[in-house]
Known about the structure:
Structural class: mainly alpha
CATH architecture of the largest domain: Up-down Bundle
Number of strands: 0
Largest sheet: none
Number of domains: 2
Strand content: under 5%
Helix content: over 70%
CATH class of the largest domain: Mainly Alpha
Radius of gyration: 14 Å
CATH superfamily of the largest domain: AhpD-like
Amino acid sequence: xxxxxxxxxxxxxxxxxxxxxxxxxxxxxxxxxxxxxxxxxxxxxxxxxxxxxxxxxxxxxxxxxxxxxxxxxxxxxxxxxxxxxxxxxxxxxxxxxxxxxxxxx
Length: 105
């Protein structure tokens, strides 16, 4: 899986923070009944709402690994249209498509 250089550098500089952050994420995921694919699709929607390119791309990769299809991921982004607006949805769609394109090569 693709790991951004900034994340790698942060991990090297602040290993304890990353360990605790990852542990918190694990606890949050285990705190409810949703399967990983749905968790990743929900997190993708949150990333779209936050207009975070890095988070959208990361959650897209995670959703694919968890078994989500490109169609399911695209649908999740489309659902953001009425909540976050057309420009934000289109930006997120372009970021998702970057991940799809990289995966195809």
